[in-house]
Structures are given as structure tokens and as C-alpha cells.
Amino acid sequence: MMTSINEDIDTNNKTKKELEIGLDFILSHFEQPVIFPRTIMTKKLGYQRIVYSTEKALAHFLESDFVDCRINAFPSLKEDTTWVPELLFIDLDLSDFKSKKLLQRALNKIMQNIKEKFDNNNNVHPTVLWSGNGYHIILPVYCPMELEYIKEFQEFDNPSERFLRFAKDFLSNNKADKSNNPSFRSCLLRIPNSFNSKCLAKGESYENSKVKIIQEWNRERPSLKYLLSGFRRYLINQKIEVMKNLNKKILKKSSSYQNGLNYSNNSNTIFWIEKLLNTPIPDYRKIVVGLILAPYLINIKKLSYYEAIQIIKDWLSRCNSLNILDSNFDYKIKYSLKNAKAKGIPPMKIETLREKYKELYSILK
């Protein structure tokens, strides 16, 4: 039996009203008043788009027929700025569990673990959504400032953003979806009463594909202080592991040097630059970082931004044993790495080094 036009209109208006309620609910998790611009994403858009109001966000959600409606938990940021980690997000995907029963058991354990990690605080009561394909846990927290401005974290790079990923694994007992790594630019939250396209594609009904509220947060933000000591230990251990791996790589390359200034047979290894990484130098450090090491580590070795920073910092530390420079290299390192990645520039050639920087070339030779 076919539905009438009026029935279709009534159904559409009801869904629209439900979506508005769902959007208001998600916005209630953010610091008030809600800061714009921030990004949204829908099935129809297929990418993140900046909006400047809730009205614009809702308009895009309606255009997408309420499918895959998401909004970023954090406002859009200018380049080289960060944000307070005031909301934690955990994604439990049904595909990572053998059954819904095991998924439910994991959720129960995580909810208990969250209370324990926050000093057995019974007032910790996060939102839980059914995404159509698993559970989403959303926990607003209190943090007075960016972690970059807290003394204990100033030696680490991007601690605020890295905390989001640490919290995801730490609070979920490493049960959270490995492919979902929250960041300030991609912490997208599904809107209750919208629909999950993955479920629709499997032939599920709209009702079974709907994002639903299982538990509402209690409007209380637990303090982040209970997690910070564990986070600092995590950062220290990560740094130690990076340095161990770096030392292994250096030892491995050292044993295979022939004349120290040749390319290896491996397309992502250049012997003379590997030798440079193992050779402290008293000068030319800005040139080496900007024109040789940053492009090499990012575009040739294909290392992560974090790994490259640690390798360059370790090399500069050894260089300081020969001649300490007053310059703060933190900005230079970050700028050089971002510039190398953005432009895809290769490292300086050995021939250029020989012609323009003879003293540095002679040190390596």
C-alpha cells in the first residue's frame, strides 16, 4: 500500500525535528556558548566542510537526507594552533567483536574502567550512542588549559592532541577501534536520529540504521588531572622507544657503510645522510635541518612527523656537545618538516653540498 504525499511530508518533518533535537544534544557536550566555525561531514558531502552556525550545519544534514551526519567536537583551528582537550571520544566497532554480547560486555567493562581511572568517581557519566554499527562513548572533561602550557608536558610535541589518542586506548583497555584516531581536526561525532549509511548498505531498515542515545551524560565534567600522570609516563615510554629504534637503525646503517657518501641500493636510504645523522657537527645546523634532514626523513624515509622530530632533536643534542648554539631550534624543526611535506622537496644532493658547503662536505668525507 503506497503512502500519501501528506504522510511522506509528516514523516520528513518528524525526522527533521528529531535531527534538530539530536544536534542540540551533541552541541550540549561542547563548552558554551558553542564556538564556530567548525567542520561537519555528511554522506552527500563526502568530505569535511566548514560551517559557521548550527543552522548551516542542519541545512547540510537535511540535504544529505539525514545520512551520515557528523560534527567536529572541536572548532576549526588556525595553522600551528592547538586546543584544550575538553572532550574524549571512544569508538567501539561491532566488527572488532565476535558477537553483540561480547561488544556489550566490553562496553560495560569500559564504563567501569572510566570511573576507576577518574579516582572511582561515581559522577563520571559519559554519553553512550548506538551508532548502528557499535557504540560511541563521549566524555566531556575539565582541563584548564592546553597541555602545551603545563610544565610537565612542555618537552613533548603536541601533547594536547596526543592525549586524545592516549585516552581512547587507556580508557577502553585498548578495545577501541584502531582505525579511529581522534584529533582536533577529525573528531567527528554522529548526530542522534541520523542514519548510518553502512547499515543501510547492508539492507538494514532506517529504524535499525538510526543513531540512538543509550545513555546521556550528566552535565558534569570530571577533571583531567587523574589521567595526566599516566599520560606523562606514556609519553616518556614512547620517547624511549623512538630513541631505541633510532639507535638500532644507526647501528645497522653504520655496519653497512662503504665510503659513506654513496647511495645504497635501497631507494629510501642515502648513505651520506645516514652518516650525517651519526656525525655531530659544530656549525651549519640550520642548513642541514632545513635542506637535508627534514626532506630526507619525511619524503625519502617516509617517517612520521613525530619520529622525524625526535631524530632531529637527538642529532642536535649531540651537535651541542661540540658547540652550543643559543638558537631555539623547535620552530625551525617544525617549520622545516611541514615545509618539506607540503612541497615534497627532496634533500640536497651530495654534489650541491660539495660545491656550496665544502667544509661540511670535508667533515663527512
Briefly characterize the structure.
With 365 residues, the protein is of the alpha+beta class. Helix content is 45%, strand content 10%.
* Secondary structural class: alpha+beta
Tell me, briefly, the overall form: elongated
Portion in helices: 40-55%
CATH-derived architecture of the largest domain: Alpha-Beta Complex
CATH fold description of the largest domain: DNA primase, PRIM domain
Total number of beta strands: 8
Which series of helices and strands comes N to C?
A: HEEHEEHEEHEHEHHHHHHH
**CATH class term of the largest domain:** Alpha Beta
Strand order of the biggest β-sheet: 2-1-3-7
Describe this structure in words.
By secondary structure, this protein is α+β, with helices and mostly antiparallel strands. It has 2 domains: 5-230, DNA primase, PRIM domain (Alpha-Beta Complex); 256-364. It has 12 helices and 8 strands. It has helices spanning 5-27, 54-63, 100-117, 159-171, 197-201, 225-255, 271-277, 285-300, 305-319, 330-343, 350-356, 358-364; strands spanning 38-41, 49-51, 70-72, 87-93, 127-130, 134-140, 188-190, 212-215. The strands form 2 sheets. It has a 4-stranded antiparallel sheet with strand order 2-1-3-7, covered by helices on one side. A hairpin with a 3-residue loop joins strand 5 and strand 6. Helix 8 runs antiparallel to helix 9 (305-319). The longest helix is centred in the middle third of the chain and has 31 residues, at 225-255. The model is unreliable at 1-5 and 257-265 (pLDDT under 50).
